[in-house]
Automatic annotation (TrEMBL):
Oligomeric and partner information: Component of the chaperonin-containing T-complex (TRiC), a hexadecamer composed of two identical back-to-back stacked rings enclosing a protein folding chamber. Each ring is made up of eight different subunits: TCP1/CCT1, CCT2, CCT3, CCT4, CCT5, CCT6A/CCT6, CCT7, CCT8. Interacts with PACRG. Interacts with DNAAF4. Interacts with DLEC1. Interacts with SPMAP2. Heterooligomeric complex of about 850 to 900 kDa that forms two stacked rings, 12 to 16 nm in diameter.
GO cellular component term, pick one: chaperonin-containing T-complex
Keyword hit for Lipid metabolism: no
Lineage: Eukaryota, Viridiplantae, Streptophyta, Embryophyta, Tracheophyta
GO MF term list: ATP binding; ATP hydrolysis activity; ATP-dependent protein folding chaperone; unfolded protein binding
Keywords: Acetylation, ATP-binding, Chaperone, Cytoplasm, Cytoskeleton, Hydrolase, Isopeptide bond, Nucleotide-binding, Phosphoprotein, Ubl conjugation
PANTHER family: CHAPERONIN (PTHR11353)
Source organism per UniProt: Gossypium mustelinum (Cotton)
Source organism, top-level taxon: Eukaryota
Function as written in the Swiss-Prot or TrEMBL entry: Molecular chaperone; assists the folding of proteins upon ATP hydrolysis. Known to play a role, in vitro, in the folding of actin and tubulin.
Protein name, per record: T-complex protein 1 subunit epsilon
Subcellular location: Cytoplasm, Cytoskeleton, Microtubule organizing center, Centrosome
Length: 535
């Protein structure tokens, strides 16, 4: 491509070999689209399951991310192809709706595209393939409902929730601490859950991390942590039964909004001005003391004079606290955010059983813990780790575990993992294909073959013989009519996922099948790729 100018100075573009370029359409376009979708699926295939590999991603500015979370991998990949972008959006949809299964949904979509390509080569029309896939997905979703089991749990019986979260965490880098992290996640979700309405507000769970320590030091705090310390080093580091004034107004004299200038030509005038400023500070501090506040948390900063006065008046203070943290502190302590000192009243103070400042290791890092709050519905998961990458990956893993616990509270039906649900659905879809007399039955059988891609990938990633392992589990399920048999990825010695306590949420698995089918149908119906240069 070259830029040239005509005799009037107007620019135009010369495209080399333009006459040799052809636009893809019809079957060629569909095969090119399928190829692009399968390329994305192949990248994630090796990251599936407890023995899946991790990917190292480097951003343009040099930041490195190590993860095996499907949504994170695809988010950080620089994808240009429009069909590949559909696969990225597929993983993102699964992440937003369910929070887990982001790798599996892309692997399933890739398998469906591979089977569709074979059917296209046999001369079957893409619309008939799409219709067959739609029928098969309905059969699979209905079969999942039949084989699903109800999980009973309560505030005193959290073991079922913990086991399901452990299944999610077993495929992450943090799997050596999966029991402890699963318990933390479940306790955090139950703290903010409304079990009567079956509703969970994950915004009330704050996930914080600090480099240092080890993963086992990760803790659940029934309150809020703020990455700040007391504004003066001589202020008390621990306050019990704290009454907290949450302020968004600054500790400083009011500034006129018009341009102004003060001429000071004598010492007396300077002394008067200084006394006036000090009176402002004294009034502000006294106002806080009068309403009974024992701790001030301020969104803005204050100068050394105000800091000195606060320390002398024995009123501990924290400055430069962000807006989001202020809101969480207000929710947790039952306080009100006060925009003006004149509006400060005893009723607007937040209450916490303990506020303490904590130092970490030999560094000067300090954090403020606000615990035993009046409203304990706001909690914090505080993660420790050897480096920043470990902490970021742990945050992503805990997010998945929190989402799984939330999904079980909303709908407490589970299916068995390790590919057991997919194999059972594959058998059911294959059996149902004979009931459909049209060409769609080929697509329904192809859908059943595509469902086997997940257990095959699990076996491959675990170092097992994929075909042999799948055949053995398949025949075992048919012989015993038991949908609990799956791939023994951890080499425990049994294929029964019920014994291994490998569970997945029903709605998560159903969503995987439905989303993968929708995206594949969309890709199959595209028969022309038009770029801006074709206009």
């Amino acid at each position: 491509m070259a830029l040239a100018f005509d005799e009037y100075g107007r620019p135009f573009i010369i495209l080399k070999e333009q006459e040799q370029k052809t636009r893809l359409s019809g079957l060629e376009a569909q095969k090119a689209n399928i190829s692009a979708g399968r390329a994305v699926s192949r990248i994630l295939r090796t990251s599936l399951g407890p023995k899946g590999m991790d990917k190292m991603l480097q951003s343009p500015d040099g930041d490195v991310t190590i993860t095996n979370d499907g949504a994170t991998i695809l988010e950080q990949m620089d994808v240009d192809n429009q069909i590949a972008k559909l696969m990225v959006e597929l993983s993102r949809s699964q992440d937003y709706e369910i929070g887990d299964g982001t790798t599996g949904v892309v692997v399933m979509a890739g398998a469906l595209l591979e089977q569709a390509e074979r059917l296209l080569e046999r001369g079957i029309h893409p619309i008939r393939i799409a219709e067959g896939y739609e029928m098969a997905s309905r059969i699979a979703v209905e079969h999942l409902e039949r084989i699903a089991q109800k999980f009973d749990f309560g505030p005193t019986n959290i073991e079922p929730l913990v086991q399901t979260c452990m299944t999610t965490l077993s495929s992450k880098i943090v799997n050596r601490c999966k029991r402890a992290l699963a318990e933390i996640s479940v306790k955090a979700v139950l703290s903010v859950a409304d079990l009567e309405r079956k509703d969970v507000n994950l915004d009330l769970i704050k996930v914080e991390g600090k480099v240092g320590g080890k993963l086992e030091d990760t803790e659940l705090i029934y309150g809020i942590t703020v990455d700040k310390d007391m504004s003066h080093p001589q202020m008390p580091k621990q306050i019990e039964d704290a009454k907290i004034a949450i302020l968004t107004c600054p500790f400083e004299p009011p500034k006129p909004k018009t341009k102004h200038k003060v001429d000071i030509d004598t010492v007396e005038k300077f002394q008067t001005l200084r006394q006036q400023e000090q009176k402002y500070f004294d009034d502000m501090v006294q106002k806080c003391k009068d309403v009974g506040a024992t701790l001030v948390i301020c969104q803005w900063g204050f100068d050394d004079e105000a800091n000195h006065l606060l320390m002398h008046q024995n009123l501990p203070a924290v400055r430069w606290v962000g807006g989001v943290e202020l809101e969480l502190i207000a929710i947790a302590t039952g306080g009100r955010i006060v925009p003006r000192f004149q509006e400060l009243t005893p009723e607007k103070l937040g209450r916490a059983g303990l506020v303490r400042e904590k130092s970490f290791g030999t560094t000067k890092d300090k954090m403020l813990y606000i615990e035993h709050c009046a409203n304990s519905r706001a909690v914090t998961i505080f993660i420790r780790g050897g480096n920043k990458m470990m902490i970021e990956e742990t945050k992503r893993s805990i997010h998945d575990a929190l989402c799984v616990a939330r999904n079980l509270i909303r709908n407490n039906f589970i299916v068995y993992g390790g590919g057991a649900a997919e194999i059972s659905c594959s058998i059911a879809v294959e059996a149902a294909a004979d009931k459909y007399p049209g060409v769609e039955q080929y697509a329904i059988r192809a859908f059943a073959d595509a469902l086997d891609a997940v257990p095959v990938a699990l076996a491959e990633n675990s170092g097992l013989q994929p075909i042999e392992t799948l055949s053995a589990v398949n025949s075992q399920q048919i012989k015993e009519n038991n949908p609990h048999f799956g791939i023994d990825c951890n080499d425990v010695g049994t294929n029964d996922m019920c014994e291994q306590n490998v569970f997945e949420t029903l709605i998560g698995k159903q969503q995987q099948i439905l989303l993968a089918t929708q995206v594949v149908k969309m890709i199959l119906k595209i028969d022309d790729v038009i770029s801006p240069s074709d206009y």
